[in-house]
Design goal:
The protein has 167 residues and is mostly helical. The chain has helices at 2-26, 36-39, 42-55, 66-72, 74-87, 115-133, and strands at residues 96-101, 107-112.
């Protein structure tokens, strides 16, 4: 029953994204003014939580981890997020600053959002991504899901089939 629910949630989200994509693709001048209420839909938030869980990572400034959310109650947290978004009371927290070393010896700053903020960000991504995806040209590959940046060059680059030694 739980697995069946998860499949239905995933299918509902994919269907929603597909409908948004097809609508945006059919009418390029169409503007989507009312998407905010889609972000706090139960199925969207569940899918967002599933993706955040899959990505793993550490907690933000509040030090709440993914394990802590499981202990607290996933449904309970998603319900609280939905209510805060619905009532306009949601406010993101400051990010936790962390530094990772770069090969040249310098350090690169990272901003780590809270798990709650990551869920909301992922929900927003799930909702708006199909609208933007419809506007991309077929030859655009950078920063798109399931696309490889260098894919555009595969038709142009021909590697030699034999090696010639000059000597």
């Amino acid at each position: 029953m739980i697995a069946e629910k998860a499949i239905n949630t995933h299918e509902k989200v994919r269907d929603f994204q597909n409908r948004l994509y097809l609508t945006a693709k059919a009418d390029r001048k169409r503007r989507f003014y009312a998407l905010y209420d889609k972000i706090y839909r139960n199925d969207i938030l569940k899918e967002a939580w599933k993706r955040v869980k899959q990505n793993g990572g550490t907690g933000g400034i509040d030090k709440v981890s993914i394990g802590d959310v499981k202990t607290y109650g996933e449904e309970k947290l998603l319900g609280e997020i939905a209510e805060e978004l619905r009532t306009g009371k949601y406010r993101c927290k400051p990010v936790r600053r962390s530094y990772i070393p770069k090969p040249d010896g310098k350090k690169r700053a990272l901003g780590i959002p809270t798990i709650k903020d990551r869920i909301v960000q992922m929900a927003a991504k799930i909702v708006i991504e199909p609208v933007f995806e419809a506007d991309f040209q077929p030859c655009s590959y950078g920063f798109r899901p399931n696309e490889v940046l260098n894919k555009q060059w595969t038709g142009y680059l021909k590697l030699p089939t034999k090696v010639v030694h000059y000597g």
